[in-house]
């Protein structure tokens, strides 16, 4: 299915080496990317980016916030979803409509997402290989939008074994579905300065999930 709602000239889904890992390169055109970045930063005024820590107490290199009824957080209490920002204690802002439309146009899951994690990568930030498994229903897909600097994304099967690396560029959309829902994945590095989309530079990643029951 095309991601027409993302304001594009019918982006095509491309085949990848990992079954269930779906990729729509250039799903957002330049104008749609700029609109989305503006919408995201306006919402971040209400829910500022912050640097979470791992349950063991190490700060993430990525700065984070969330939109939607539930937001992913991490601290000494573990990984979980909660309805409020850990620092401001306020509810997260709403998920932008364009992202809800994108979800409906791509992954075809009957329920809308209730969580949108916002990741900002700057100054060498990266994300180690991991699985997304803090959601109540691990059958629901995970959909992610890349904006700004290009990322080197690594992905491999849930069980382990060899991994594949591919570039995620600004405007690309990808999804972990079906057999790839629990795929191990991470961001090895971000190619600093490869895009001028984000004010003050960097890479923004928006990840939509069905987190609650
Ligand atoms: O930044 C990305 O593209 C991946 C982010 C991710 O895997 C996560 O937040 O769980
Ligand atoms: Fe992830």
UniProtKB/TrEMBL annotation:
Essential cofactor(s): Fe(2+)
One cellular component term from this protein's GO annotations in UniProt: cytoplasm
Ligand binding (Fe cation): 130, 132, 185
Listed InterPro entries: Alkb, AlkB-like, AlkB-like_sf, Oxoglu/Fe-dep_dioxygenase_dom
Superkingdom of origin: Bacteria
Keywords, in A-Z order: Dioxygenase, Iron, Metal-binding, Oxidoreductase
GO molecular function, one term: oxidative RNA demethylase activity
SUPFAM superfamilies for this protein: Clavaminate synthase-like
GO annotation terms (biological process): oxidative RNA demethylation
Domain Fe2OG dioxygenase: 112-212
Cofactor note: Binds 1 Fe(2+) ion per subunit.
PANTHER family the UniProt entry points to: ALKYLATED DNA REPAIR PROTEIN ALKB-RELATED (PTHR16557), NUCLEIC ACID DIOXYGENASE ALKBH1 (PTHR16557:SF2)
Protein name, as recorded: Alpha-ketoglutarate-dependent dioxygenase AlkB
Organism of provenance: Brevundimonas intermedia
């Amino acid at each position: 299915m095309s991601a027409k709602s993302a304001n594009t000239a019918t982006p095509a889904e491309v085949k990848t080496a990992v079954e269930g890992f779906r990729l729509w390169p250039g799903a957002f055109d330049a104008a749609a990317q700029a609109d989305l970045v503006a919408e995201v930063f306006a919402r971040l005024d209400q829910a500022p980016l912050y640097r979470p820590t791992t349950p063991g107490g190490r700060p993430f290199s990525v700065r984070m916030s969330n939109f939607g009824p539930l937001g992913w957080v991490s601290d000494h209490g573990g990984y979980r979803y909660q309805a409020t920002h850990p620092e401001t204690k306020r509810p997260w802002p709403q998920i932008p409509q364009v992202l809800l439309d994108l979800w409906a146009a791509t992954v075809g899951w009957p329920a809308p997402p209730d969580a949108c994690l916002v990741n900002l990568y700057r100054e060498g930030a990266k994300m180690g290989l991991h699985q997304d498994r803090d959601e109540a229903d691990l059958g629901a897909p995970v959909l992610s939008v890349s904006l700004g600097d290009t990322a080197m994304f690594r992905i491999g099967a849930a069980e382990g074994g060899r991994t594949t690396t591919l570039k995620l560029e600004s405007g690309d959309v990808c999804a972990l579905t079906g057999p790839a829902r629990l795929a191990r994945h991470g961001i090895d590095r971000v190619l600093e300065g490869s895009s001028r989309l984000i004010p003050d530079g960097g890479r923004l990643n928006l990840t939509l999930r069905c987190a609650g029951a």
